[in-house]
């Protein structure tokens, strides 16, 4: 496929230790993340390759980072009597699913996976910092109104096409893709460079088809690396 890199951005969603199984890199061992997604670290190699190509051809590379304060409202631990996977009603959001504590600001778990070449990123967007509000999408927090600033950044560079990869397929990647489409970006998802939670069961399959039906192009990283 032909890409006008000047008007394109790669968005690498939440490739952080807490979303990845245990791994060793550069002699350092990282334990399994608190919200590890099967094969999470596997997205690093293909995303690095795409990011290198974007940098070489003057496209933008953006990485997002889930970045929660301690006692964030999305953590089951802050809701007495609730457990991971339960739902609660938060003021701004209906049906917030509850997660284990994860991606706490400044923690090892919040760091990018060591194998992700974050030096290639032009911009890092941190999201989920409001203690009372979760943020799946790279564009808007879960009230669907509070912007992360990403749309303004992309528009400032006249970027009209976005390519998405990262974690997790059925949450942050999915919500980012749906917002990108709503904001009228031409949107592609790298199916080989995403991994999902698949909770509730079947949600990965469901979101892959929802993204495609809504207009996202489903491609693999090799579709653009061959060009
Ligand atoms: Zn989170």
Mean pLDDT: 95
Bound molecules: zinc ion
- Poorly predicted ranges: none
Continuous helix count: 5
Proportion of residues in β-strands? 15-25%
CATH superfamily assignment?
Isochorismatase-like
What would CATH call the class?
Answer: Alpha Beta
The domain count comes to: 1
Please sum up the structure shown:
The chain is an alpha/beta fold. It is built from five helices and ten strands; from the N terminus they run βββαββββαβαβαβα. Strand 9, helix 4 (203-214) and strand 10 (217-219) form a beta-alpha-beta unit.
Question: In words, what does this structure look like?
Answer:
The structure is a single chain. By secondary structure, this protein is an alpha/beta fold. The chain has a single domain, classed as Isochorismatase-like (Rossmann fold, 3-Layer(aba) Sandwich), CATH 3.40.50. The protein contains five helices and ten strands, in the order βββαββββαβαβαβα. It has a six-stranded parallel beta sheet with strand order 7-4-1-8-9-10, with helices on both faces. β5 and β6 form a beta hairpin. α3 packs parallel to α4. The longest helix has 14 residues. The protein is globular, with a radius of gyration of 17 Å. The termini are close together. The mean pLDDT is 95. The structure holds zinc ion. Zinc ion binds next to loops.
């Amino acid at each position: 496929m032909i890409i006008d890199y000047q008007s394109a951005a790669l968005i690498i969603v939440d490739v952080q230790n807490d979303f990845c199984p245990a791994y060793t890199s550069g002699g350092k061992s990282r334990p399994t993340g608190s919200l590890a997604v099967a094969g999470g670290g596997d997205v690093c190699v293909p995303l690095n390759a795409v990011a290198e190509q974007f940098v070489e051809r003057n496209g933008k590379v953006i990485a997002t980072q889930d970045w929660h304060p301690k006692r964030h409202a999305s953590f089951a631990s802050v809701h007495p009597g609730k457990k991971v996977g339960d739902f609660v009603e938060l003021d701004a959001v209906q049906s917030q699913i509850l997660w284990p504590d994860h991606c706490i600001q400044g923690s090892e778990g919040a760091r990018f996976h060591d194998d992700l070449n974050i030096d290639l990123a032009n911009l890092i967007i941190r999201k989920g910092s409001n203690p009372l509000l979760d943020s799946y999408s790279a564009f808007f927090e879960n009230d669907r109104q509070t912007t992360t600033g990403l749309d303004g950044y992309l528009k400032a560079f006249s970027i009209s096409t976005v390519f998405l990869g990262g974690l997790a397929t059925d949450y942050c990647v999915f919500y980012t893709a749906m917002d990108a489409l709503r904001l009228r970006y031409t949107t592609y998802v790298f199916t080989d460079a995403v991994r999902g939670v698949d909770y509730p069961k079947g949600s990965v399959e469901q979101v892959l088809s929802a993204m495609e039906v809504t207009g996202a192009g489903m491609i693999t990283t090799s579709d653009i690396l061959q060009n």
